[in-house]
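Subject: design request, 316 residues
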């Protein structure tokens, strides 16, 4: 049992590390290509990999789900989440964008009550408020340094959090590989539709880096840039396998804490590849956000363990 727990934690940490490699890859091409082209190439590369994974996991018949509507809705919410996150990292230092994105677990806990009918304690709500204080420390309103792209990262976290609550609702009948396949389809379809809409509207340029990354026309990529975009497809597929394996081997409430190891990698990639040095307020705000998330996860773990202890005492 302990070996499974250790292996699960290692798989999850490695999955988080692998996923984090997408951020510098996307940021590296954000100055010359549109986000829709990056997502389309990523989705095309990931498609055959996901087909193999679905076939090995539950069989391709599982793609013809009775919950097609919910799967599709969730997939396009994920598409929106990742699109606005990529737009954020085009304008923000990686450390800032990722730290703000780590509000997602707190959003999940706050929304679990109204969406899933789960009881949300006052302690959980208090940790959400602590996380919001961390956001304010990072954004420094009134300091003259606020970039509205930070709101994109926060919006991405909220959308991602809601999509994970949807996954909890439909996960009783749908596998993670099927959900990932639908997500990939939404990335490809959404990218083509959004790019086509801006092309038909004749919008090809914007001043802000995030908007420019959105509306820029597609161009034939140079080989090094194509390889960076294509690598995102392999990275996403490998990351999904590792994360799924981590949650399969160990209880979710034990390993979820290790999702926060992602905050270690983004400042490192930002420094190594883009010479970004995190500000003191970024580190303080990130510490508050992570600390709030860890407190909330620990509280949820204790509450879930209490009924089991009570049942053990009754049996004795």
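Subject: RE: design request

Done. Sequence follows.
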């Amino acid at each position: 049992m302990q070996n499974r727990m250790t292996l699960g934690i290692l798989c999850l940490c490695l999955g988080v590390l692998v996923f984090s490699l997408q951020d510098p890859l996307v940021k590296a091409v954000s100055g010359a290509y549109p986000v829709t082209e990056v997502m389309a190439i990523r989705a095309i590369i990931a498609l055959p990999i996901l087909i193999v994974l679905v076939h090995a996991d539950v069989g391709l018949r599982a793609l013809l789900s009775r919950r097609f509507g919910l799967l599709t809705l969730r997939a396009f919410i994920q598409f929106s989440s990742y699109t606005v996150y990529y737009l954020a990292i085009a304008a923000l230092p990686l450390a800032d964008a990722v730290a703000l994105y780590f509000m997602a677990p707190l959003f999940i806990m706050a929304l679990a009550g109204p969406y899933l009918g789960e009881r949300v304690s006052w302690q959980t709500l208090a940790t959400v408020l602590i996380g919001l204080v961390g956001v304010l420390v990072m954004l420094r309103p009134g300091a003259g340094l606020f970039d509205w792209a930070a709101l994109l990262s926060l919006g991405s976290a909220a959308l991602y959090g809601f999509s994970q609550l949807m996954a909890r609702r439909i996960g009783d009948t749908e596998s993670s590989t099927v959900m990932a396949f639908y997500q990939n389809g939404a990335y490809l379809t959404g990218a083509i539709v959004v790019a086509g809409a801006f092309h038909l509207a004749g919008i090809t340029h914007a001043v802000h880096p995030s908007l420019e990354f959105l509306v820029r026309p597609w161009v034939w990529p140079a080989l090094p840039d194509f390889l960076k975009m294509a690598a995102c497809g392999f990275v996403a597929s490998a990351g999904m396998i590792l994360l799924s394996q981590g949650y399969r081997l160990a209880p979710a409430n034990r390993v979820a804490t290790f999702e926060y190891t992602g905050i270690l990698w983004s400042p490192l990639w930002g420094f190594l590849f883009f010479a970004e040095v995190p500000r003191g307020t970024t580190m303080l705000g990130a510490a508050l956000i992570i600390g709030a998330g860890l407190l909330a996860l620990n509280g949820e773990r204790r509450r879930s363990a209490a009924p089991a202890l009570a049942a053990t005492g009754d049996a004795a």
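The two ends are 24 Å apart (CA to CA).
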